[in-house]
Amino acid sequence: MSKLLQTWVWAIGLCSIAPVWAQSAQPKQPLPMGVCPLPTELFQTPIEPIANLPKGAIGVRSERSDLDYRTEVASFFGDVEVQLDNQQLRTEQAQINQQSGAINASGRTRYTNGYVQVESENFRLNSAENQAYISGAQYQLVASGARGKADILSLSPQSVRLEGSTFTTCPTTDPAWQLSARTISLNEDEAFGEAWHAKFELFGVPVVYIPYMSFPITDERKSGFLFPTVRSSQKNGFELEVPYYINIAPHMDATITPRYMAERGLQMQGEFRFLTASSRGQYNLALLENDSSRTGDNSRFLWRVEQEHTWGENWRAYANGTFISDDDYLNDFGSDFAGRADAQLYRHVQVDYLSEQWQVTLRSEDFELLGNFRSPYRTLPQISSYYTYTGPFGLDFDVFSELSHFRNQELSSDYATRLHLEPQVRFSLEQPGFDWLAELGYAYTYYDQNEDLDRGLQENPSRGMMNFRWRGRLNFERQLEINGASYQQTLQPQIQYLYTPYRDQAGIGIYDSTLMQDDYQGLFRARRFSGLDRIADANQVAVGASTSLFDSQARELARLSLAQIYYFSDSETQLLEQQGAIAADRSDLAIETRFRLNNRWYVDSAIQYDMELNSTRKSQTSVEYRKDSKNLMQVSHRTVTSILDDNIEQIGMLGVVELSPRWQLASNWYYDLHHNRTNDALIALQYSDCCWAMRVSAYRRIDRSFEFFNGQPVIGEPEFDTGVSFQFIIKGLGSDNQSLLDLLEQSLFGYRQPFHLSN
Predict the structure, then answer these.
(1) Confidence tier at 340 by pLDDT (50, 70, 90)
(2) Where's the Organic solvent tolerance-like N-terminal domain (predicted)?
(3) Is 720 helix (H, G, I), strand (E, B) or coil?
(4) DSSP string covering 608-627
């Protein structure tokens, strides 16, 4: 290498005379390789910026130089590095012309302006016009890694124009997909590129010709088609979904999705979303005007609204509701907003006022039961308020009030108005070692009912009763050492006494009440029924304890909870027939356990055990291995025993496994041990590459049909629906964020955590 060259060469700059600064090369470090690296990084050894280079000046490093003052041309040879502002050039030899401001390079040449990297054998840069022209070029976008080839590539500030070019985000030399176009234009200030006379190629085979298209080159949103979904099932036949995304504004967008079903016809689906500083909302509509697989009223639809607003610090409003044309809609078409196993749809609108002492809610709500059941009541409307005041001696005074109007959805003559007023005084004390709570209240309820003599209701019944509750808890903890490791064990025994006198409530209709779950936490509630139509009489003591084991990092490793209620007198209050009445001297024993065997293995169990019959009434147990969202396995067992012949015993298995960095497998299987049949099964296989992915899935599930004959459900062997689905995902032209775990959650019995004892 020749000695260090330090010289000045004058060249024409933009609106000024710009010096060319030559300096010897410095040692360089290789760039780290990414998860999906390009086959050849154009700048594996980046150019070291020349220090204190004035703006507009051309700096050069080389092994040798030749300065011709007559022609004002400087020639540089051997590992030449040229820098002009944010533009960098590395080549074998280069010439810089002072008069024209041109930089010509020959031999293997690599160039970058921070937005694009280019490699070619022929390069010309006009520094006066700040334009570069390259022939036979390979290019790579710095931010996204998109790459391709171009017969002619022209560069200007913030823009790239490619003639006879290709574009792909695949890192391999043989890309799975690419655009091959006559002209491609990319702009640094825009998040999208444009292509004219383009062919879309998959694995080297042209599949579609597009005269003009616009495509994303970053993660920013843009209107256009999203990935299609192809599937097939017994009920719907061949299916094809082709979503079209509309980027309306930075704070709102929409998606229109035609869904063709060979056995039913064309369904149109639409979604509109918006998000502002004080509100958010989403509206969905799906309409199949003519379901060719049905007779009679064959128009099928689903529409949904969800919206939330906040006004200042005190006011907020929320609305949420899903509406369907018929009970079989979810079973036939599925939905992202309700499960196929759901038995009801809940809808409500409410406005809240919140302050330090007041909470006031204006609400309207209703339930839609799926199946041939008596129509439920709508709440139109309900006004409730809760006022709290802290008085002397640590006493808290609360007043809860509610005014509700109920109306049957189908029978206009079936309605009622309810007024409820409940003052309460409460004293609580909390210390590190214990806490206790005493509550004394009085509940008064008045009804104005449309008298129904057939049901034995009264026109204006009223009910008043006092209630008393006392609960105390102790908090113990100790340090343990097991096999040389330090642990902390906590123990929290608790006891609660509850007294509510009996009142005859048979003349009151049931509008919003149901029996709540008797799990560990439920045994320490103040009431056994939800709503206010039934307040159960009680003279009972609940006793329970919970113990936990924590490691040195305060992670809970194990928990055991047991509780039971002892009744001093029978509870006579009934909900429906004998539902809710208690004639035993004690409740079921509620047991809950949870074990964290290590950072990946968990065991959860919840049991309700009848001590008198020595049998399990309800139980759910699961063993779960969870490494991450791509590696999860769970085995579960669930039982529900009833005095009627509707017992449930089910075993389930599900898992998501990453077979390799590119292959993922997901599956679930739920088997009904009581009826000896598979109720739900699904398997999905996904291949993911750096630039494309493919997902194939198949399912078999029980058909939850609500078909009726003369008002009665059709009885017989259940039917099953089977189907397959195929998705091809092209990365770099959009995104698909749904994981295989999300796919399992959409099945009939999806993955759920935590686990609850419910029918």
Answers:
(1) confident
(2) 60-190
(3) strand
(4) EEETTTTEEEEEEEEEEEEE
pLDDT value of position 556: 92
From the CB of residue 593, how many other CB atoms can be counted at a distance below 10 Å? 15
Q: How far is the C-alpha of 335 from the C-alpha of 269, rounded, in Å?
A: 11
Q: Is 509 helix (H, G, I), strand (E, B) or coil?
A: coil
Residue 572: pLDDT band with limits 50, 70, 90: confident
Judged by average pLDDT, the poorest of 12-26, 248-262, 299-313 is 12-26
DSSP structural state of residue 34: -
What pTM did the predictor assign?
0.72
Most confidently predicted of 380-389, 405-414, 656-665: 380-389
Calpha distance 459→453 (Å, rounded): 9
Question: How does pLDDT run across 155-171, given as a tens digit for each residue?
Answer: 877 678 889 988 887 87
Residues 6+ apart with CB under 8 A from 702: 677, 679, 680, 718, 719, 720, 721, 748
Find, among 560, 500, 498, 561, the residue nearest to 525 by Cα. Answer: 498
Q: Contact 510/576 with Cβ under 8 angstroms?
A: yes
Place of tokens 């079921």: 588
Exposure class string for 601-620: b at 16+ Cβ within 10 A, else e: ebebbbbbbbeeeeebbbbb
User: Which two tokens mark 45?
Assistant: 């050894």
Assess contact for 169 and 143: CB atoms under 8 A: no
- pLDDT for position 471: 96
294-297, long-range: CB within 8 Å, 24+ apart, which pairs? none
CA–CA separation, 714 and 706 (whole Å) = 8
Mean pLDDT of 695-700: 88
pLDDT attached to residue 258: 95
Structure tokens given for 504: 């005859």
Q: What is the longest distance spanned by two Cα atoms in the chain?
A: 117
Q: Among 231, 229, 233, which residue's Cα sits nearest to residue 723?
A: 233
Element (H, E) at 245: strand 244-249
**Neighbour-count burial for 519-556, b at 16+ CB within 10 Å, e otherwise:** bbebbbbebbbebbbbbbbbebebbbbbebbbeeeeee
Residue 529's region, left for phi above 0, alpha for psi from -120 to 50, else beta, is beta
Closest CA to 420 of 500, 537, 532: 532
What's the distance, CA 97 to chain centroid? 59
- Kindly list the structural domains of the chain, giving each domain's residue range(s) and its CATH number in brackets, ordered by start: 8-216 (2.60.450.10)
Rounded to 5 degrees, φ, ψ at 369 are: -85, 130
Q: What is the DSSP letter of 455?
A: G
